[in-house]
Design a protein that fits this description.
Distance between the termini: 48 Å
Oligomer: single chain
Largest sheet: 6 strands, mixed
Number of helices: 15
Strand content: 15-25%
Shape: globular
Order of helices and strands: HHHEEEHEHEHEEEHEHEHEEEHHHHHH
Helix content: 25-40%
Number of strands: 13
Radius of gyration: 20 Å
Length: 345
């Protein structure tokens, strides 16, 4: 199949926006993803087709969400401009082929980090952007009160997600005989759930919180069950084979977490660079810059573009967002959470 048609098969309408990467660019030994991004002048970032709080496009064509912010932080770090991102909306089943084919340089698309994926899909996970769990959404009134109440029921789940395997394993382990209704896209799964084709919708808990907001009868007509049946650490993903690119993406994430650990915000960043502790953590190190092939000031640019991790969370998922999710596991380690940035030296 010609390369352009391959791209269209994977990303659909997105191929109208993007020029597909040539075969020689994608699988070359020791590929230099950063050089390709600089040559085209834009980061190609794979995102969801529309999940509130993570990656969603409004009527004016503006993308927002924590995954979108992370893509912009990476663009700011490597290109000096957070606006130099082409967002490529992908179904869950399309995301890894799109990454492998070079249609996107980076996936920031509600993707769970698993050993199976890392070992078989030519993909490497850069670090946890959001610690999530797998849950169930049911309709009210009349829906199940607990997962045990779903015994023998049909449950909607999106194709190409870790949710499918976790649901089947949990059902088998607990002898629930749950019947997964595997549906091609998140939008179609949501519609099937609200149309009554399944008794519950299984997905990442954060995703279900967004789906609940879209209930035809209002959020009060749907409810999350209390149980959580699996860990879902959501991570940005890059192709295997370019260790420098993996390291750079990983440390953009750590720079955002480090800034929050130090109490540095987007508004206070420039003034705080006079602080030796902040300067050591976020400012330039010539040896590191040269080894990664990145221009000086990349960590500062990342934080300046979107703020620290806490600012991103609050704006997209927390109290300043429609979802109003608790930080929970995504608090800093100093506040009882799991967010932790390794030291630079």
């Amino acid at each position: 199949m010609p390369r352009l048609l391959q791209c269209c098969a994977v990303v659909g309408a997105a191929c109208l926006l993007l020029q597909c990467v040539q075969p020689t660019e994608v699988h070359a030994e020791g590929e230099n993803t950063l050089a390709q991004i600089r040559a085209r002048g834009a980061l190609h970032c794979g995102v969801s087709e529309g999940i509130e709080g993570f990656s969603a496009k409004d009527g004016a064509g503006h993308w927002s969400g924590i995954d979108v912010d992370f893509c912009r932080a990476v663009a700011a770090a490597v290109l000096g401009n957070a606006a130099k991102v082409e967002f490529v909306p992908l179904k869950a089943s399309e995301r890894f082929p799109a990454l492998d084919e070079g249609i996107v340089d980076l996936l920031a698309r509600n993707t769970t980090w698993t050993l199976l994926r890392e070992s078989t899909l030519k993909a490497q996970f850069a670090g946890v952007l959001f610690y999530d769990t797998q849950g169930f959404l049911v309709r009210r009134p009349g829906g199940a009160q607990t997962v045990a109440g779903l015994k023998g029921a049909t449950v909607c789940v999106e194709k190409g997600t870790s949710t499918v395997a976790h649901l089947r394993a949990y059902s088998n382990d607990n002898k629930l005989d749950i019947k997964p209704l595997v549906i091609d896209s998140a939008a179609e799964a949501r519609s099937a759930f609200y149309e009554g084709r399944c008794s519950a919708y299984a997905a990442d808990s954060s995703h279900l919180a967004a789906v609940r907001l879209m209930a035809p009868g209002g959020p009060q007509t749907a409810e999350m069950l209390p149980e959580r049946i699996a860990k879902e650490p959501l991570s940005p993903v890059v192709r295997a084979g370019d260790e420098s690119w993996l390291t750079l993406v990983r440390w953009v994430l750590f720079a955002l977490v480090t800034a929050e650990e130090l109490g540095v915000t987007r508004d206070t960043l420039q003034a705080r660079l006079n602080d030796p502790t902040v300067r050591r953590a976020l400012a330039d190190d010539d040896e590191i810059n040269q080894s990664l092939g990145v221009e000086p000031g990349w960590m500062v640019r990342a934080v300046q573009s979107v703020g620290n991790y806490g600012e991103m969370f609050d704006r997209n998922l927390g109290p300043r967002s429609p979802l109003k999710l608790e930080r929970g596991l995504n608090r800093l380690w100093t506040q009882g959470g799991l967010m932790y940035a390794p030291p630079i030296r």
